[in-house]
């Protein structure tokens, strides 16, 4: 039986992570994500799962990657300043292809910024924060049930594609207590691939586009994992042909599987004159605004991205064939609007509603912008 | 094939180390300690950060992990907590362990998590071409102290003792038998252990300080090191530039971190849950 409960957003993430099989947590306290660590510190020992509070966020993600390589499903949770520190090890997880899930409860930035105010200003840091070319997967739930389902999905994607997956959450949703449906175990997919029979000669050996197998230490044959560029054996290599293949292996495992990774919701878009593009807390206001617009006879619809990285390009471009106006609503000074500008054809008119002062948009504000836009 | 050779991954040779580098001696000592303890290579993981020492794991035929600069201990902490029964060895240089990774070092010591650290002290950043490190002795010339080093260096023995480390030792690359013995002893210790190994970087430290051959540099290491008994006979001024050898701290009473977690915290939490309490 599924259960209806009233829970804080952070706690929904923690519960969903445990439901997805998370058995290792390392973290460092930071507002507004600390409840996730607190909940884990209480619940995980009861389940004989490992919890540790580390000395900083760099160490937290390092410990998670270590545990993941030792066969655990690892989670850490942080906010902007901690996410900045984690960029170093985010790159390691990409390079060595280690499944790990990172929650970033976004708060006002830059620097210490506004710890108790919401913002959606880490969108580009999530995509490009760590150095070098790299694939990244980021999910961004907006409604309470999505917080549960997207957290479970984040673990599945991490395991399936051997890549770090970031869960973005808004400060307001992390702290708010919401009515949520906790589904019955078994009613949702929990992906867990058993370690393949491997040797140290072939750990990264696969064809471009193929999902890698999960590779753990302590499984029959000693292996080497490296932060240096490496060959199919995992051994350091700077040979141009080898590096070329490894770069492609890492990037293409994501781009060959966009249909599986990308998830979005569309509301009232079939006959829409205006497509509102939004995500997270802003999408909640936008949905209410779109409904109000419809009541007033304005043909507005919402495209809510649940997977923000990779960007849901194909689905949006399909909509832009008919809908020629796009309004991007985001709580920052303009980040994802550049993705829209990049993919929308020239005949699509672009408008934005942006703000980064710590106040979420009200549905009325979004409605006013829609009305201005359709004039 | 000698018995320690099954712990060496010959097919990844040659190593990137300069001829005469002390790292080879340390690689062999660690492999010999594995062999004497008759460990299954798959039950061992050797982890390192960045630098000349960072390349060492590649050459062990055990599970091996090359991580980020200064952070090997953080990965090791995750692995040890996930698999407490495995032998988790961290190899780190002086820059890696005491500069960029200094915070992780003191916290691993404070937690007393059962990681075995081999801290290679050659007093210089070798891989990057010879810049000053927190363990470079005062007045030494390096690429970033062209007028002589004005900073004092860490005393690892005292730093780790203050952080409540339960096993602290120092050896040199000149004394292979003693080095292997101390490493073996540290592997048998239950909590966090650090074996500092005085090593020679004649190429990037020696060359700029009138010690450009490995023999001159190992002779220098011999001159500045001595037994604890001899060290204690020196005046405080004389002690400044000398390094005692041996095992300084060996505390078997302090509980190990993963032991505390799985044997105390986990049962306590389960009991509290059964009673329905907090």
Task: Provide structural commentary.
The complex is a heterodimer of chains A (375) and B (278). Chain A is of the alpha/beta class and 375 residues long. Chain A has 13 helices and 16 strands. Chain A has helices at 9-19, 34-43, 57-69, 80-96, 123-128, 144-161, 171-175, 240-255, 258-261, 280-295, 313-319, 336-343, 363-374; strands at 3-8, 24-27, 50-53, 74-78, 100-108, 114-118, 137-139, 164-170, 177-182, 224-226, 264-267, 274-278, 300-305, 307-309, 325-330, 349-354. In chain A, helix 1 packs parallel to helix 6 (144-161). The model of chain A has no long low-confidence stretch (mean pLDDT 95). By secondary structure, chain B is α/β, with parallel strands linked by helices. Chain B has a single domain (3-275), classed as 3-Layer(aba) Sandwich (Rossmann fold). Chain B has helices at residues 23-36, 72-82, 94-100, 102-111, 156-162, 176-188, 214-224, 228-232, 236-239, 257-275, and strands at 44-48, 63-66, 87-93, 115-121, 167-172, 193-198, 225-227, 243-250. An eight-stranded mixed sheet of chain B has the order 2-1-3-4-6-5-8-7, with helices on both faces. Chain B starts with 22 loop residues before the first helix and ends with a helix. Strand 10 of chain A pairs parallel with strand 2 of chain B, so a sheet runs across the interface.
């Amino acid at each position: 039986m599924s259960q209806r409960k009233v829970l804080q957003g952070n706690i929904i993430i923690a519960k969903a992570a445990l439901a997805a099989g998370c058995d290792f947590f390392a973290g460092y306290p930071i507002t507004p994500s600390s409840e996730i660590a607190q909940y884990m510190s209480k619940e995980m020992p009861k389940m004989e799962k490992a919890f540790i509070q580390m000395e900083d966020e760099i160490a937290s993600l390092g410990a998670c990657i270590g545990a993941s390589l030792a066969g655990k499903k690892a989670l850490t949770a942080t906010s902007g300043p901690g996410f900045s520190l984690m960029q170093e090890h985010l790159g390691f997880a990409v390079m060595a292809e280690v499944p790990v899930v990172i929650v970033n409860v976004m708060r006002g930035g830059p620097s210490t910024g506004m710890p108790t105010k919401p913002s959606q200003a880490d969108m580009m840091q999530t995509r490009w924060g760590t150095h070098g070319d790299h694939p990244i997967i980021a999910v961004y739930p907006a409604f309470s049930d999505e917080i549960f389902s997207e957290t479970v999905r984040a673990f599945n994607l991490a395991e399936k594609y051997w890549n770090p997956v970031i869960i973005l959450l808004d400060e307001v949703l992390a702290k708010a207590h919401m009515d949520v449906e906790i589904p019955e175990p078994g009613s949702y997919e929990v992906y867990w691939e058993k370690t393949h029979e491997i040797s140290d000669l072939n750990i990264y050996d696969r064809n471009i586009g193929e999902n890698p197998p999960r590779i753990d230490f302590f499984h029959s044959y000693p292996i080497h994992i490296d932060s240096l560029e490496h060959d199919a054996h995992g051994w350091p290599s700077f040979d141009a042909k080898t590096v070329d293949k490894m770069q492609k292996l890492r990037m293409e495992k994501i781009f060959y599987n966009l249909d599986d990774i990308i998830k979005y919701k569309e509301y009232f878009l079939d006959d829409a004159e205006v497509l509102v593009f939004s995500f997270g807390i802003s999408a909640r206001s936008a949905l209410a605004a779109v409904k109000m617009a419809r009541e007033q006879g304005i043909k507005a619809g919402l495209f809510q991205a649940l997977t923000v990285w990779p960007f849901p390009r194909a689905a949006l471009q399909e909509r832009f064939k008919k809908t020629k106006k796009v309004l991007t609503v985001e709580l920052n000074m303009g980040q994802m609007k550049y993705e829209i500008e990049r993919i929308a054809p020239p005949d699509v008119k672009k408008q934005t509603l942006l703000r980064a002062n710590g106040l979420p948009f009200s549905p009325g504000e979004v409605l006013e912008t829609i009305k201005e836009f359709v004039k | 094939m000698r018995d320690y050779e099954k712990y060496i991954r010959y097919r990844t040779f040659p190593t990137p180390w300069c001829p005469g580098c002390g790292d080879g001696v340390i690689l062999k000592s660690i492999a010999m300690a594995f062999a004497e303890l008759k460990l299954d290579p798959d039950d061992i993981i050797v982890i390192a950060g960045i630098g000349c020492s960072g390349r060492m794991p590649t050459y062990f035929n055990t599970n091996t992990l090359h991580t980020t600069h200064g952070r090997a201990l953080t990965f090791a902490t995750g692995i040890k907590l996930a698999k407490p029964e495995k032998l988790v060895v961290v190899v780190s240089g002086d820059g890696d362990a005491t500069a960029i990774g200094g915070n992780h070092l003191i916290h691993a010591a404070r937690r007393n998590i059962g990681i075995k650290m081999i801290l290679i002290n050659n007093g210089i950043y070798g891989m990057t071409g010879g810049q000053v490190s927190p363990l470079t002795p005062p007045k030494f010339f390096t690429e970033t102290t062209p007028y002589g080093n004005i900073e004092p260096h860490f005393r690892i023995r005292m730093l780790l003792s203050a952080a409540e480390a339960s096993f602290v030792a120092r050896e040199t690359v000149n004394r292979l038998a003693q080095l292997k013995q101390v490493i073996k002893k540290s592997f048998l210790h239950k909590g966090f252990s650090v074996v500092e190994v005085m090593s020679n970087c004649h190429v990037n430290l020696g060359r700029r300080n009138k010690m450009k051959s490995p023999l001159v540099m190992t002779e220098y290491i011999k001159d500045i090191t001595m037994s604890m008994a001899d060290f204690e006979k020196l005046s405080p001024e004389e002690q400044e530039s000398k390094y005692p050898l041996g095992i300084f701290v060996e505390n078997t009473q302090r509980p190990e971190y993963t032991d505390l977690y799985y044997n105390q915290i986990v049962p306590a939490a389960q009991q509290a849950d059964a009673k329905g309490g907090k």
